[in-house]
Description:
The protein has helices spanning 25-29, 37-53, 69-74, 81-91, 93-100, 135-138, 141-151, 211-220, 235-239, 266-277, 293-299, 320-323, 326-337, 350-353, 370-373, 384-397, 410-426; strands at residues 3-9, 58-61, 111-114, 125-128, 156-157, 175-180, 183-190, 228-232, 249-252, 255-259, 282-286, 305-309, 313-319, 343-347, 363-368.
Amino acid sequence: MLTEVQFDGLVGPTHNYAGLSSGNVASTSHAGEPSHPKTAALQGLAKMRLVHGLGIEQAFLPPLVRPDMPTLRAAGFDGDDAAVLAAAAADNPLLLAQASSASSMWTANAATITPSCDTLDGAMHVTPANLISKPHRAIEPPQTARLLKHALPFAVHHDPLEANTLMGDEGAANHTRLHSDTGTVHLFVYGIDHDNPNALAPRTFPARQTRLAWATIAKQHQLPDDMVVLAQQSPAVIDAGVFHNDVICVGNGGLLLLHEAAFADTDQVLQALRDRLGNAFTPLIVRSDDLTVDEAVSTYLFNSQLLNTPVSGVTLVCPAKVEDHARARAVVDGWLDAGHIDTAHYLDLHESMHNGGGPACLRLRVPMTESQVSEIPPGLRIDNARLDQLTSWVEQWYPDTLTPLDLGKSDLLHMSNAALWALGRCIGLPDLYALPR
Ligand code: SUG
């Protein structure tokens, strides 16, 4: 029996809007606005509380240390921390924003994980995403890898793929594991195939995930060939703002919710999945007449969490924007009426959403055996007591508001480091961060 644990990213205290992700419409359109780190973190905790309350195994990954001072020092800024921050703020505010991003909250981009029951060597395999397409995200992997080793001590941990453009990898946001009585399949979605010069590529925005990255991960994770389906994302939807496949497609068990425009060849992808999963495979295709790609991007309907819960059956955890949008809401109501899903919840996650991160971006799915679940450090597991503790911690440390000008202040660095130091201690993992007191 597998349990799918949801590892949510705990939003870090430097959460801000710097417009760092071209191709991500929300990120660029909210650039420069004030952010609300405390609200952001509390919204994330409210999601964890909801999902935990549905009877789902919930855990979390702590924030990374930000601002990342080694990134600033590597760019030649020197002196004490206050001098480095002040000089970076004056001379290179973009680099300072990159070093300060709380982007590790979107744990769907932390790694690709394949469960031990699927792999030829019977081990769980983990490859942290290299995230090379955006400088603020490309600095995440070393700390993320360290956290994942803490969280999943029994797994085989690979290095992130080589940091070159042929190997762009954004992790689980482009990976969906589906299964039925007849089989299991890993759907790996890529934006570009550098080995096939004839294949179409997006023109306006970068394709963040390459085919070669997926082929390499599937191999090093020891997945049997017949469990692997590689599918090209439609270049047109990338240019419309679908920077990860989880903005246009979500699946669980034998159920796949997708927009008709998701893939370069949607029919072929669905046939390949049906071949593996048999008649139990249920793709629910949303047509452009019912919801355009632009509406899918603005509402983040497909970035809902699709969960098989003991408490409320097949449950969709949607962003509140879906509830407020008549056509997106009608799609969900249609799925409810037809009995494809049993329950829909709507959650206000606007702080993360303004950076392009919906419910599904905020979590990494890890299918595990019961004995593996018992090896997750208790400090990272979520129950009501842990939620109360994390809520008090956020209330104590987090700023209410941040603007781009605050990023250069050494107070923010000191507060952020002190908060993480306190977090490690309060969850009983004092070695989580290599931070001086
Ligand atoms: O990589 N936004 C993230 C959002 C990631 C969403 N994840 C998934 N779809 N799984 C990104 O584009 C914006 C940061 C800023 O602009 O300040 C940002 O990094």
